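Hi there,

I know you've been waiting on this one. I reran it after we fixed the sequence typo, so this is the corrected version. Both the input and the resulting structure follow.
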Amino acid sequence: MEVIGKIKMIDQTKEVGSAGFKKRDVVVTTDEQYPQHILVQFVQDKCDLLNNFQVGEAVKIDINLRGREWTNQQGETVYFNTIQGWRIGKVQAEAVQPQSVPMPVAEAFPPATSLNEDEPDDLPF
């Protein structure tokens, strides 16, 4: 799966917990009729992939959806989802909106042949 859009925000790398787990968030705004602000999380050694990117750049991020279950102290089970990035690359403006070359009208259709008045017209109308 992938997310394509412009970088809105890049957070700093943060260490979470006592085991030294590293994470870094980036927000990408999609280019659609109703733009979406998608939070993508990079973890551990993938955090450094964001070092070469800046706010405003068009990017494509390859992602995995992650889900996990957690039971709180009251015994209630709660579910969490994360969008986890594993690769990021710059997108050129031409790659996002490919332009088609219009075909000249003369080449679009074969030339019409002249009708022979002696042949019967087999059209039903």
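Quick highlight: The longest strand covers residues 58-71.

Best,
R. S.
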